[in-house]
Design brief:
The protein has a domain of about 290 residues: MetI-like fold, CATH 1.10.3720.10. The chain is built from 13 helices and 33 strands. The longest helix has about 50 residues. The two termini are about 45 Å apart.
C-alpha cells in the first residue's frame, strides 16, 4: 500500500504566484482605464466653469465720465467728461499722467454723446465739427518692472457740417495710422452727413496731402444712435420706434438704406461684435438682441437671430470684447451682464461697482474692463476661459454669422482673428455612427455567414487553411488599409461602383442558382467528388458573374448626376464601408466561428438523427445555441469600427456633414481628434472640446459593451437548456 503524496510545495508556490500575477494584471488594467477616465474628466471639467468678474481698483474722479478706455495691462484709464476734458490717470495710485482740453464750440460743452472707437475719443460740437482725440499708451521695462505711460497727441478737428449745425449723434472710425478717418453725424435739423477724409504722405518729401468727400441725406425720423463698422463701409442707425436702418458706404458716399428691420422699444445702445458681422441691439425696455446682416442673392437684409433675457432698465452701454463674440451690457440701474453671442449664454450677472454707472469698456486683452460712474471709475478683472461652449453650442443648432439659418457645424479655426468658432459635436457623433453602420452592413453578413459556412459546411482539410488566412487579416495595420482605401480604392470605386451595386444583387442570385444546379447535377449524374470540390465551382461562378457585372457597369458620377441627381464625392461612406469592413470581418469571423464550433456535437448529431437536414440543423439548432457568441462577435466588431481612426481619417474626406447618403463623406469623433489635437493650444477651448469628444467616445463604447454583455448573458441563459 502506497501513501498518497501531497502537492509539491513548488507547485503550490507557482500556483499562488500565478494567481497574484493574474490578479495584479487585472487590477492594473482596471486602474489604467479608470486613470484614463479621470484624466479625461480633469481636462473636460473646466468647460463647465463659470465666468468670474472681480473688482480690482476703484478711483474717484472730479466729474462724471461720458466715455473711457484703458490699456492692455489695465494700469492706465483715460476718461472724457462733458466739458471736453480728457484725463489719463494711473488706476493704482490715481496719479494723472496726461490731460487735454478739447477745442469745443461756443457753448464749451459737448453737443452730442461721446463715443470710443478703438483708442480714440470722438465728440461732436454745437458748430458742426467732430473732434477726434487719440490716446496712446506705451509700456517700458526697467529692472524687470513694467511701467506704462500715456500720451495725448494733438486732437484732430473735422468740419463735418459746413453749415455749422450742432452735431447731436455721431459715429467715427480713424485709421490706425491716424492718416484717415470716416465720420457719420446727425445734425440738429435731421440731416445725416458722412465725411470721409484720407491723408497721403509723400515718402520722398514728407508732404501730406489731404482729401475728403462728403455726402448727406435726410435721416430716419427718431434716429437715436449711429454706428460705423470697423472698415467704415456699413452704417447702421437705431431709431426711437425700435427699427435698425442699414446703409452701404462706397466711393460715391451715402446711398439709400439697404434695409430697415425691427420695431418695438426704442434702441438705446448699438454695437458691432468682432468681425462686424453681428450687431448687438439694446433697447429701452432692457431687452438685448443680436442681429445679422444677411445676403440672399441680390437681397440684403437684417435678421434678428438671438434674444437674451431682458434687464430691469434701459440698456445704456454695450462693450464688445476685442477677442471674441462676447460683450458687457450695462443698464440704467447699474445692472451689469457678461453675455456671449455664439453660445447664447449669460456668463455672469452682477452690479456695476460704481454709482451712476454710464460707460464701460473692455481692455484690449479681454481679461478685464473699466466702468465709469458719476464720480468714480473701477477696474474689473474678467476670467472667462471658455465662453464659446455650452449645451446649445455643442449639441444644438446654432445660427452662425453668415449662415442662412441655424445649423449643426464643426469648424474650429479659420484664417482670420474675427472667426466665430463652430464646435458642434453633433455632426461628429453622426459621422461616427454613419461610418460604423456602413462598415457593419458589409462586415456582419460576410463575417457571420462565412463563419457559419467554415464551421458547419466547409471540409476540415480546407478549414485548416481558410480560418488562419482570414484571422491573419486582422493583423493588417489600419493605416495601410486607409492608405489603400484613399489612394487606390476610392478612384477605382468611382469607375466601377455601379458594377459593384449590380454585383450585390446578381452574385447572391448566381450563388443560389449555382448551388441548386450543383445539387441537381450530382444527384442525376451520380458524381462522386471529394468534400470541398463544390467550392471551386462556386468560385468560378462568382468570378464570371463579377466579370459580367464589370462589363456592363457605367461611370458612377455621371450616372448618379444624370439619372438620380445625387452628388458624388470620391471619398465617401461606401469606400469607408468596404475598407473598414475588411478590417472588422476577421474579428467577427474569428469569434463567431468559435461560437459555432463550440456548439455541442451531440445537439448536431441528435438533430440529424431525427431526420433534419444539414441546413435545418444549422439554422434551428446551431444558430440559436451560438447566438450569444455571435452577438458578442458583432458587438466587438461594432467597438472596433466605432473607434477606428486611420481608415476614416484617410478615406472619408473629413467633411462634418449630416447626410446619410453613401456617396458623401463624413467626419468621426476619433478622426477629428487625430486631425485637430496637434494644432490645439493646450488648455484652450478647442483642446478641451476634443477631450470632451474623447469622453463621448469612451462613454459610447462603454455603454454599447455593457448593453452587449447584458444581452449576451440573457441569450446564454435562454439557450443554455438546448
Amino acid at each position: 500500500m502506497t501513501r498518497a503524496r501531497g502537492t509539491a510545495p513548488r507547485r503550490l508556490f507557482l500556483d499562488r504566484a500565478a494567481r497574484i500575477v493574474v490578479g495584479a494584471g487585472g487590477f492594473a488594467i482596471i486602474a489604467s482605464i479608470l486613470g484614463i477616465l479621470v484624466f479625461i474628466l480633469h481636462e473636460v471639467g473646466p468647460l463647465a466653469s463659470k465666468a468670474r468678474v472681480r473688482v480690482e481698483t476703484t478711483r474717484a474722479t472730479d466729474s462724471p465720465a461720458l466715455a473711457l478706455l484703458t490699456d492692455e495691462h489695465r494700469e492706465i484709464v483715460a476718461t472724457l467728461d462733458d466739458a471736453g476734458r480728457v484725463v489719463a490717470r494711473r488706476l493704482a495710485s490715481g496719479e494723472e499722467t496726461a490731460t487735454a482740453q478739447l477745442p469745443l464750440g461756443p457753448s464749451g460743452r459737448i453737443a452730442g454723446p461721446a463715443i470710443v472707437s478703438g483708442n480714440v475719443f470722438a465728440v461732436g460740437t454745437d458748430d458742426g465739427r467732430v473732434i477726434l482725440q487719440r490716446v496712446e499708451t506705451a509700456a517700458t521695462f526697467a529692472d524687470g518692472v513694467r511701467h506704462v505711460d500715456a500720451t495725448l497727441p494733438a486732437a484732430e478737428v473735422l468740419a463735418v457740417d459746413p453749415a455749422g449745425r450742432p452735431i447731436v449723434r455721431l459715429s467715427a472710425r480713424q485709421e490706425p495710422s491716424g492718416e484717415g478717418a470716416t465720420v457719420a453725424a446727425l445734425t440738429s435739423d435731421g440731416t445725416l452727413v458722412v465725411l470721409r477724409e484720407t491723408s497721403t504722405t509723400n515718402a520722398m518729401t514728407g508732404e501730406v496731402t489731404r482729401d475728403d468727400s462728403r455726402s448727406s441725406l435726410p435721416a430716419p425720423p427718431g434716429t437715436e444712435i449711429l454706428l460705423l463698422d470697423t472698415d467704415a463701409v456699413n452704417l447702421y442707425a437705431g431709431t426711437a420706434d425700435g427699427s435698425v436702418r442699414w446703409w452701404r458706404l462706397d466711393a460715391a458716399g451715402l446711398r439709400d438704406p439697404l434695409s430697415s428691420a425691427g420695431g418695438g422699444a426704442a434702441i438705446t445702445a448699438l454695437e458691432s461684435l468682432l468681425g462686424d458681422r453681428s450687431l448687438v441691439v439694446g433697447r429701452s425696455d432692457g431687452s438685448i438682441e443680436v442681429w445679422f446682416p444677411l445676403r440672399r442673392g441680390t437681397d440684403r437684409s437684417l435678421q434678428k437671430v438671438r434674444t437674451f433675457p431682458a434687464r430691469d432698465a434701459a440698456i445704456v452701454a454695450i462693450a464688445p470684447t476685442p477677442r471674441g463674440k462676447g460683450f458687457f451690457a450695462l443698464d440704467a440701474k447699474g445692472g451689469l451682464d457678461l453675455l456671449y453671442s455664439t453660445s447664447s449664454r449669460v456668463l455672469w450677472t452682477g452690479t456695476a461697482p460704481v454709482e451712476g454707472a454710464s460707460a464701460i469698456a473692455f481692455a484690449p486683452k479681454s481679461d478685464g474692463a473699466v466702468v465709469a460712474g458719476s464720480h468714480a471709475v473701477a477696474s474689473l478683472a474678467v476670467k472667462n476661459p471658455h465662453p464659446e461652449v455650452g449645451l446649445a453650442a455643442l449639441f444644438g443648432k446654432i445660427w452662425y454669422e453668415g449662415y442662412e439659418g441655424p445649423e449643426y457645424a464643426w469648424q474650429s479655426s479659420s484664417g482670420t482673428e474675427d472667426f466665430e468658432p463652430k464646435l458642434s459635436l453633433t455632426p461628429l457623433l453622426f459621422g461616427t455612427l454613419k461610418g460604423t453602420v456602413y462598415s457593419l452592413l458589409l462586415a456582419v453578413p460576410l463575417g457571420v455567414l462565412s463563419a457559419m459556412y467554415a464551421s458547419q459546411f466547409l471540409a476540415p482539410s480546407l478549414k485548416r487553411f481558410v480560418k488562419p488566412a482570414v484571422e491573419i487579416m486582422a493583423s493588417l495595420p489600419s493605416v495601410v488599409l486607409g492608405f489603400l482605401a484613399g489612394l487606390w480604392l476610392a478612384p477605382l470605386l468611382e469607375r466601377v461602383l455601379p458594377s459593384i451595386a449590380l454585383m450585390v444583387v446578381a452574385l447572391p442570385l448566381l450563388t443560389i442558382g449555382a448551388g441548386w444546379g450543383w445539387e441537381k447535377a450530382t444527384r442525376r449524374l451520380g458524381w462522386r467528388l471529394p468534400d470541398g470540390a463544390e467550392l471551386l465551382g462556386f468560385v468560378a461562378v462568382l468570378v464570371l458573374g463579377a466579370w459580367a457585372c464589370l462589363r456592363v457597369g457605367t461611370s458612377l458620377p455621371g450616372f448618379t448626376l444624370s439619372s438620380l441627381g445625387v452628388p458624388y464625392d470620391q471619398r465617401n461612406a461606401v469606400v469607408v464601408g468596404i475598407a473598414m469592413g475588411f478590417a472588422v470581418i476577421p474579428i467577427i469571423f474569428a469569434i463567431a466561428e468559435d461560437a459555432f464550433s463550440n456548439v455541442p456535437r451531440s445537439l448536431v448529431s441528435g438533430s440529424l438523427a431525427l431526420g433534419a437536414s444539414r441546413w435545418q440543423t444549422v439554422t434551428r439548432v446551431v444558430l440559436p445555441t451560438a447566438s450569444p457568441g455571435i452577438f458578442a462577435a458583432v458587438m466587438v466588431g461594432f467597438g472596433r469600427a466605432i473607434g477606428e481612426t486611420m481608415i476614416v481619417l484617410m478615406a472619408t474626406g473629413n467633411t462634418p456633414i449630416l447626410d446619410w447618403s453613401p456617396f458623401n463623406g463624413f467626419r468621426t469623433l476619433s478622426a477629428n481628434i487625430a486631425t485637430e489635437i496637434p494644432e490645439a493650444p493646450v488648455g484652450g477651448t478647442l483642446y478641451r472640446t476634443l477631450f470632451l469628444a474623447a469622453l463621448l467616445l469612451f462613454v459610447l463604447t462603454f455603454t454599447v459593451n455593457t448593453v452587449a454583455e447584458l444581452v449576451r448573458q440573457r441569450l446564454r441563459r435562454k439557450y443554455s437548456s438546448l
